[in-house]
Structure of Diaminopimelate decarboxylase:
Amino acid sequence: MQELVNPIRKSITRSIKISFAFNVESIQELEVINELASKKGVKANVALRINPNVDAHTHHYITTGLDENKFGVPNADLEKCAAVLKKCESIELVGLHFHVGSQITDMTVFKSLCVKVNEWKNWFEERGTQIRVLNVGGGLGIDYKNPDGNTIPHFEAYFDIFDRFLERTAQQEVHFELGRALVAQCGSLVSRVLYVKNGVKKNFLVLDAGMTELMRPALYQAYHKIENISAVDTVESINYDVVGPICESSDCFGKEVPLPVSKRGDLIAIRSAGAYGEVMASRYNLREEIRFVYSNQL
């Protein structure tokens, strides 16, 4: 019997070759990396992702730092994890990694995270392991409801929290993963109205884009501001359910969205799509791949 090649093992092996640092989430993952690094005769750098059990106060689908979540090494396993690390001769622990969730707008969450990071950094250092890198993850949210009024998140308040409450030495690096906060407001999904359907109880705008182009609303009922950019001078307004053409009832960008009276061919802009848009797009239902336009003028 021929064993199928595990794509994860292949990815780990490639990363070891280029001295890539791994964020490790389980004891078994540590053992796999140690085995593969040993075969290559090298040491793999790893950061241990710890589940800090901090509530991010965000949608439960994008909460990642509670005991009930699948991410990271739980606190109860850290003693065992530390023992395994000592036995892994082909692994070097260089850092600790944390990530409690996404789209966080309550800054007290990050203060609570700092307390946990300090606790576990000290725990390792008391046991003789020096931590070079503290990766506090990301999660800083944006204003989806008012993208023009609040284009830039509260970076100053965010970094001030870590500056005041995160304990670190001059030799330690602090890493942040601010993907959404940096790019979400930089992109919009622009779609054309295929049909206007005036129903008995609902008015529908059926777009040529759907959940295959922007998955967030279908996946966890995420809000995006929706604008008719072909009817900016139209005064009369109607509430529409703005939907896509996919044969799924969840293929909906917004319900009861107040928009100018719209017609077939109008261009609809779905705002704040610069994060988790392109990377989550799919060819479900054999849809064509989405096209992307980059411009400083639009």
Notes: The chain has seven helices and eleven strands. Residues 1-5 have pLDDT under 50 and may be disordered. Residues 7-183 form a domain with the TIM Barrel fold (CATH 3.20.20.10).
